[in-house]
Write a structure and sequence with these properties.
Blueprint: E1 7-14, E2 17-24, H1 31-38, E3 57-62, E4 68-72, E5 85-89
Parallel strand pairs: 1-5
Antiparallel strand pairs: 1-2, 3-4, 3-5
Length: 94
């Protein structure tokens, strides 16, 4: 098998800028930790993934579909389901 089979390409979108990311299964504990590692978003993930603050809310979409879901990034594991998704981090934090 090619090493490419293990890559998970995704795009983070923050303040109108696209940030293409390549990751792999279990590289990060959750989508929240991936985002925190790649972007300095003030007020993002204040409870450090304890699911108690709601500051890691993101929108997950796919460029091939019009369906977008709103979820806590701390609830999303890094796996193949994220492949080719676009994750938008809203500007406003609570």
């Amino acid at each position: 098998m090619s090493a490419d089979k293990y890559n998970i390409p995704l795009t983070l979108i923050y303040q109108g800028e696209n940030y293409p990311i390549q990751t792999y299964v279990n590289e990060y504990h959750s989508l929240m930790t991936l985002i925190s590692n790649h972007l300095a978003v003030v007020g993002f993930g204040l409870c450090c993934g304890m699911r108690s603050c709601g500051t890691c809310m993101v929108e997950i979409g796919n460029k091939y579909s019009s369906v977008t879901i709103h979820v806590l990034a701390c609830d999303i594991p890094i796996n193949d389901e994220l492949s080719n998704t676009e994750i938008t981090i809203p500007d406003q934090r609570y």
